[in-house]
Design goal:
With 277 residues, the chain is mainly α. The protein has one domain. It has nine helices and three strands; from the N terminus they run H-H-H-H-E-E-E-H-H-H-H-H. It has a three-stranded mixed sheet. Helix 3 packs across helix 5. The chain is globular.
């Protein structure tokens, strides 16, 4: 069943780096943004209810506007496409995006991509921030500070799969719908944010596995992030509003073997056909 969206003139949310306040920064204001009606249980990722505020076209347009602002803000610090860091990020991104197009994988997570067009683009920004983010519509930015933490391509795929998962799951549109509903308090908002982050971990592990990367490295990457936060005595940008390290690692340990089994079943052709086919 197709989702219904509330009426909106132009507004977007964020995960990690960006917040709803970016609407004001790019001169956009919501009009008639109410809690969407007609959203039924089971429409969202993992068959959960998921209210959305942005139509597919609005989601893509606003992601592009926000990304243009990011490129202006970091002008002079965006690495050239011929740099090895950029080539590495883009090659891994391309593999993950190809995996995201696998229909059985979409069904496994219950991703609703019908009607959505993604204009994927990845850039690398010279900065010591241990961070990366993706905006609606497929715009991705990776800060060089996170590259030494991701020791190999599998660990960098962990980061990129997590961020791409946010885009595919329409988390920004969902966050905005929650904000506009007026029914989300501070504590429940934090729990809700952590829920989205766990969902991105879950989807991301499957994405990287189907893209041919080792999901065990996702566990090792988050263990490294845990040690960094402990050594520095502060939480890196990339970990803000994320689940606790212990919770995340326990969840990943359960998802990794499932992702491996799903990939093996796909490779061996042991996938149930879609309904009606």
């Amino acid at each position: 069943m197709a989702r219904r969206w509330s009426s909106i003139q132009g507004c977007m949310s964020r995960r990690g780096l960006f917040c709803v306040g970016i609407c004001l920064a790019i001169g956009l204001a919501p009009l008639g943004c109410g809690f969407p009606e007609g959203v039924e249980e089971g429409e969202g990722p993992g068959h959960r209810a998921q209210p959305l505020s942005l139509t597919p076209d609005q989601e893509r347009e606003l992601g592009e506007r926000a990304y243009a602002q990011v490129l202006r803000e970091y002008r002079g610090r965006i690495l050239s496409p011929d740099r090895p860091e950029v080539k590495r990020v883009r090659q891994i991104t391309a593999r993950i995006i190809r995996a995201a197009g696998i229909r059985p994988l979409q069904r496994e997570i219950n991703l609703d991509l019908q009607g959505y067009q993604f204009d994927w683009e990845a850039n690398v920004i010279h900065s010591q921030q241990v961070n990366a983010f993706a905006l609606p519509g497929g715009k991705i930015a990776v800060f060089t500070g996170i590259l030494p933490v991701a020791q190999d391509d599998d660990q960098l795929a962990t980061v990129l799969s997590h961020e791409i998962a946010h885009v595919l799951a329409h988390h920004a549109s969902e966050r905005l719908a929650r904000e506009q509903s007026g029914r989300v308090g501070f504590l429940s908002r934090k729990a809700y944010d952590r829920g989205q982050e766990s969902e991105a971990d879950h989807i991301g592990v499957f994405l990287m596995t189907f893209a041919g990367y080792d999901p065990e490295e996702a566990i090792r990457f988050w263990q490294r992030m845990q040690r960094i936060s402990e050594d520095r005595g502060q939480v890196p940008e990339f970990l803000s509003d994320h689940p606790s390290d212990a919770h995340r690692l326990r969840a990943l340990e359960g998802w990794v073997p499932r992702a491996r089994l799903a990939k093996r079943a796909f490779d061996e052709g042991r996938i149930a056909p879609e309904r009606g086919r």
